[in-house]
Write a structure and sequence with these properties.
Elements lengths: L2 H8 L15 H11 L11 E5 L2 E4 L4 E4 L2 H4 L8 H13 L12 H11 L4 E5 L2 H20 L7 E5 L8 H5 L4 H4 L9 E4 L4 H5 L6 E6 L15 H11 L3 E5 L23 E4 L11 E5 L1 H4 L15 H15 L2 H22 L4 E7 L2 E6 L6 H10 L2 E2 L1 E2 L4 E4 L7 H21 L10
Parallel strand pairs: 3-13, 5-6, 5-7, 7-8, 8-9
Antiparallel strand pairs: 1-2, 2-3, 4-10, 9-10, 11-12, 12-15, 14-15
Length: 438
């Protein structure tokens, strides 16, 4: 469906109108976007102008429940007053120094983040991809300087269907054609195992292996949860072979799964952990690698850095995020709402409405509809008409990751919208009626 047809259809959705932006329409903004921006994204045709909590409003006054939450960057909701208050105070005082000088916020942030992660040191960065690149560099340096791997021989084991960012090094070990193809030559030094299969990892380990890099739960792949013993087996395997375990918790960490870190679900402590997205409270980009001193301590002055990494504004906001997480209330709420989310997912699947399966943990879910009913993109377009924002991933899967601040009424609205959207697809595809989930 083209964006103009969708925009026309959206007028059928009436929520509480908070007023529109005079003279600005959805079409106006989309046309400007297409003229001036390289088209590296394919957004849904909604133009957001304001937001609060779990709800956003577009330029024409329509309201939507945000069930993407900036890929978990907005775990604490839009316009979180506690975080905004910290940001306002810091904006008035000091925003940027570079790491050429100390600032009065960074050490506090690093200390409390290290305590939260039960580890020693922090390397502050900005984006998730930067954190992963930092972890790769640290692991290789540790391999050469501590483990004794011969120069240029270090290898890192990654998983199939991984997503760690879009830098040249990271896409070199991606098996997603959109991320990978036509961007070579590729960075060597990576081996790909099967996510969820510890034996496939073990088969790739040799004397030059310095790390295993894994998402505890694969978000971009569709919220894929590994078998129960997988991460514990990886921890044992890495320990036995003097190999670092690196957990990429950029999407899965910081409350999303109902625990502070996804690895906590299985009682696993990695050597290095990459964090991002929610660490900046949805206000500024903040990321970090947290880990043990024997690994991160191998990095010396001049060997790694970032102009904006650890800036006082980012550190102040990140510090408040860490303090919020230390209180555990958001994790507790995510667990409670997660129970309701699962109950609704099970009811939806049981209604035989074209839902061929789902995965779920905490306040995070991937819903797959039968391909003959439609694609994930088509389901998201229908959800948009019913006031729900979500994001498709591969094929016919839609992921749901609302802010951790949602309530029971919000969840009811979400699942009413899902039922209606799936029914809309069925109406447009009468041949689907009565067919099995396939």
């Amino acid at each position: 469906m083209d964006h103009k047809s969708l925009v026309h259809g959206m007028h059928a959705f009436h929520a509480e109108d908070q007023g529109s932006s005079p003279g600005v329409t959805t079409d106006d903004v989309i046309n400007e976007d297409r003229q001036w921006l390289a088209q590296t994204y394919h957004p849904l045709p909604v133009v957001i102008r304001s937001a609060h909590g779990a709800w956003v409003e577009d330029v024409e006054g329509r309201r939507y429940l945000d069930c993407l939450a900036g890929y978990s960057a907005l775990n604490f909701g839009h316009g979180n007053e506690r975080l905004l208050a910290v940001a306002r105070e810091q904006l008035e005082r000091l925003t940027m120094t570079s790491r050429a000088f100390y600032n009065d916020k960074l050490a506090d942030f690093a200390r409390e983040l290290a305590h939260l992660a039960r580890t020693d040191l922090v390397v502050p960065m900005n984006t998730g991809a930067e954190a992963v690149e930092t972890a790769i560099k640290a692991a290789r340096a540790w391999g050469y300087r501590v483990k004794g791997v011969s120069a240029g021989k270090a290898n890192i084991i990654v998983m199939d269907s991984n997503f760690h960012g879009r830098t040249t090094t990271i896409i070199s070990f991606s098996d997603d054609p959109d991320a990978h193809d036509d961007f070579g030559p590729y960075t060597p030094g990576f081996r790909r195992a099967v996510f969820g299969d510890a034996n496939s990892v073990a088969a790739l380990v040799d004397e030059n292996t310095v790390a295993v890099l894994v998402e505890p739960i694969q978000g971009e792949a569709g919220v894929i949860i590994p078998p129960d013993g997988f991460l514990r087996r990886l921890r044992e395997l890495c320990t036995a072979n003097n190999v670092l375990l690196i957990a990429d918790e950029i999407q899965s960490g910081l409350g999303r799964t109902g625990t502070t870190f996804a690895c906590d679900l299985w009682g696993v402590q990695p050597d290095l952990r990459t964090l991002g997205k929610a660490l900046g409270g949805g206000i500024v980009p903040v990321s970090a690698v947290v880990g043990t001193a024997d690994v991160l301590g191998v990095l010396k002055p001049g060997q790694h850095g970032s102009t904006f990494g650890g800036n006082p504004l980012a550190a102040a906001i990140g510090l408040e995020v860490v303090r919020m997480l230390a209180e555990e209330s958001h994790q507790e709420h995510a667990r409670a709402m997660g129970v309701l989310m699962r109950e609704n997912l099970e009811k939806l699947e049981a209604k035989n409405m074209g839902v061929s399966g789902f995965s779920h943990i905490g306040l995070w879910a991937g819903i797959t509809i039968a391909p003959r009913l439609g694609t994930g993109r088509q389901l998201c377009e229908k959800l948009l008409l019913h006031g729900v924002l979500a994001k498709d991933t591969h094929g016919s899967t839609v992921r749901l990751s609302p802010p951790l601040t949602i309530d029971e009424a919000d969840l009811a609205f979400l699942f009413e919208g899902l039922e209606a959207a799936i029914d809309d697809l069925a109406v447009e595809n009468p041949a689907w009626r009565g067919k099995s989930h396939s």
